[in-house]
Amino acid sequence: MLKKSGVFGRLPAFRRARGETPVVSRTTEYAISLLFFAGVLALRFWIDPYLPPGFPYLTFFPAVVICGFVFGVQQGALVALLSGLAAWYFFIPPYYAFSFSPGPLTAMALYLFVVVTDLTLIHLMVRAYTAELEAQNEMTQMVEHQEVMATELDHRLKNVFATMNAVIMLSQKHASTPEELASKLRQRLNAMARSNLVLRGLKPGDEMTLDVVLLQALEPFGVDESNRFSAFGNKIAVSGQAVVVLSLILHELGTNAAKYGAFSVPAGRGDVEWTVVGPETGEALLTLRWVETGGPQPRQEPEHAGFGSTLMRRVLGSLKGTSTTTYPPSGAVVEITLPMTSVLPFPAVAAG
After folding, report:
1. Lower CB count within 10 Å: N or C terminus of the chain?
2. Sheet harboring 322-326: ordered strands across?
3. How confident is the model at residue 105 (pLDDT cuts 50, 70, 90)?
4. What's the sign of the alpha-carbon dihedral 222, 225, 229, 232?
5. What percent of the chain has pLDDT over 90?
6. How does 263-279 read in b/e, with b if 16+ C-beta sit within 10 Å?
7. If you write DSSP's letter for every residue of 60-80 in order, what string do you get?
8. Looking at the domain that runs over 174-343, which CATH code has it been given?
9. pTM for the complete prediction?
10. pLDDT of 69-98, one tens digit each?
11. Does residue 330 have a pLDDT over 60?
């Protein structure tokens, strides 16, 4: 439905052209048109004694234009028909008769030419008005869409830069040599880059799901080609920012498992399961459990202990999430909890 524009937008003919219901019904419009015709007919009789011969349509032409412009071409055509018959019968000699002599027929032909031209111009004007409104509305929608996209891009870039800043600061803190720092940064930034490339590859209307994010993040560790890893959970759509954060965290978990945990030995195994809990309380939460078994006993911790948990705490904060890490005798367990409002993509909900 088109938005109204200007004074014309209030008239029934233009409201109907926009797909809106006029204030009065069609029956009322026809009744008003008939009353208007009766008024101009009475006016024509009243001024007839003061007019020289040759003006049979003086009051009827404006009536046709006004009714057609206000109510529409159909109502204008009705007034035009009645006005033509009235002029032919009352005001074209011989009076009070429908004469088919050349003179009256020529006058009626001229009348028909003028009213058809007027109604055609009114029809074209209404169409032009509608086309202009459509163009204005399309332009408005494009501007609004660009504003939304710009806001979303600005929000995403801020989050990405904040995440990169956290990664750089933590990598610098936990690296002992420039070479180690460069290697850590390259690996983690590559993980973020892969997640953005996956997002760019989505077609319009497609959604990124959590299982795809998981396999993409762990692809460098070959988990999709082995029977040492399993992932279980319902398909859950993920926002762009959540894809970047989860990809970085899962890559970090995979890296630690490959260096110190289950993926570092042939007998090791990794399992990931996710569920949505708590919708009955009014705030649904996504819980993701990363479980390693069969790794080195006891679990060999990284030389700079605490980096993984610190990284997760920092980057999860952008999604209002939390994480806990424990090391039972069987291996390692990492549990990540995120509000679904921070996980689901825009416009379903707004990411925080």
Report:
1. N
2. 229-232, 269-277, 285-293, 331-339, 322-326
3. very high
4. positive
5. 26
6. beeeebbbebebeeeee
7. HHHHHHHHHHHT-HHHHHHHH
8. 3.30.565.10
9. 0.49
10. 899 899 999 999 999 999 999 999 888 989
11. yes
Amino acid at 306: G
Closest to 271 (Cα-Cα) out of 335, 198, 319: 335
- Beta-strand ranges (E) seen in 129-225 are 208-209
Contact 290, 259 (CB under 8 A): no
Residue type for 3, please?
K
Which is it for strands 237-238 and 208-209: parallel, antiparallel or unpaired? Answer: antiparallel
Place of tokens 């998981």: 214
Strands (E), 301-350: 322-326, 331-339
* Spatial separation of the C-alpha atoms in residues 160 and 318, rounded to whole Å: 10
Mean pLDDT of the chain: 79
User: What span, in angstroms and rounded, lies between the C-alpha atoms of 14 and 8?
Assistant: 6
- Which tokens hold the place of 306? 């605490």
**Residue carrying the six token digits 């029956």:** 27
**What pLDDT, in 10s, does the model give residues 130-185?**
888 888 888 887 887 677 656 655 655 665 665 566 566 656 665 678 877 777 67
Chain-centre distance of CA 126, in angstroms?
29
